[in-house]
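FIELD: query
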Amino acid sequence: MSNNQPAEAKIQNLKQVSAVWCIPILALAIGIWMFVQYISSQGPVITIRMPNASGIEIGKTAIKSLSVNVGVVTNVQLSEDYSYTLVTAQMNRDSDRMLKEDTSFWVVKPRIGSGGITGLDTLLSGAYIEMQPGDDKEDREHFVALENPPVAPVDAKGLRIILTSHHAGKLGVGDPVLYEGFTVGRVESVSFDIKSKLANYQLFIFEPYDSLARTNSAFMMLSGFNIQMNAEGVNVNVGSLESLMTGGVTFMTPDGDSESRQTEQLVHYRLFDSVHDYREKMYEKHLDFVMMFTESIRGLKVGAPIEYRGIKIGTVKKVPLRLPTSKEGFSNKEIPVLVRIDLGRIYDHSDEGSLEELQASFETEFNSGLRATLKTGNLLTGALYIGTDLYKGEKLPNTRQYAGFNIFPTKTGELAEVQKQLTELLHKFNKLPVEDTLKSMTATLKVSQKTLLSAERVANDLDRLLKQNDTQSLPGDIRTSLQQIQKTLNAFGPDAAPYQNLEGALSRFEEVMIELQPVLRQLNEKPNSLVFGDDKAKDPIPVGGHKS
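FIELD: result
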């Protein structure tokens, strides 16, 4: 081999990897590990339907439960019809156990409600979404946020009751539930059932006050300030300070009823407008009557009481029952009023009275003179009520029914009788010759005026007469004359000589008259005895011829 020939290179494959590739491989491994850790640390993705996204920020608004972060908002978008917003949130690991059918979400922000001011801490930190975990068995990923925070957690101990009413808007979420003036619960939610056309109010009564509710408890509206002016007078009720501002609901438990405690949840009760309304609804059995009145019924309202000597036995249902037809016109002077007589107000609840017995009893009382009259219940408002009493000698009306109802006989009220008497008195007064009397009185006044003028002139003349000197000296002359008369009368006193002489003369005259009494008696019996003498005188008898 020549030295000028080039040497052949030997090629040999190396089996070692360059250390440069370790860095990207390591970075890739760390990235994969971090991705796996991120995926494993993330919980489920949920969507929350809200009416608006006020205060919600992507990547900042947190989802909390008991002040612990359990998720964060990742997206906010409008619905297809723009009627609501859809919030997407990424939940933390282990949060899937809290996402159940009964899980609740709501936005925490400053609120002023019946329970006070809440959410003040969000003024600095911003609004966040509060989650109330559920305990249902079924999982859920799509939720609808509550407009207001719930009154109590789902697992809170207490009693939930649903009140039904024909009118909506009576209660609001958070309104208090009171018992004897003490707050024992809150209104949780308000809804309206389209099928039944009833408003539903869900209450939550906290433990241990739930033991106060009974199966026959009555729930009623409680207004903070209630004033009623009717035939019974003026009634004023004032509730608690909270109910005075927001209103509320209260309930009553029958006395001595400890066996019928309400233990079932979401039981329906009726919501009464007031305590008075509840007490009126206690009397379900009643008789309907029509009362025909001939006087004005102004002031008689629906709900006015019907009393028997001060005891309420019923109420007025409709005033008037109906207006006159075109055929009747206003020629019919009687106004029909529909009333109801409650069975429970007349018979004791322990009695076994029936409506048939009550009807038969009323028929007997009608024959005995039971009548209804209009009476004034309140002079301030002019409210009327109907009073009933027995009036002997009253005849039953010929018509016993009206528009399918039995007639309750009536009698003209005292007020109408007074008005009638006043009208008759005015008619009699109008018939009096008032004009002639006034003319005569005018003439008399003129004569009296002339007489007064004459008297005034006489008084003036007398005054001038008294002012004369001769008239002023008269009192002294009169005094002198009276003294002389007094001296003269003293001369005829018992101690004076003329009086004693006169007394002696009268004594002698009395003696003479006593002696003249036989003569006067004789003259009275025989007036001519002084001339012819007394015929009864006996003849004289000679002395010699007298025998001894």
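FIELD: remark
The first strand starts at residue 42 and ends at 50.
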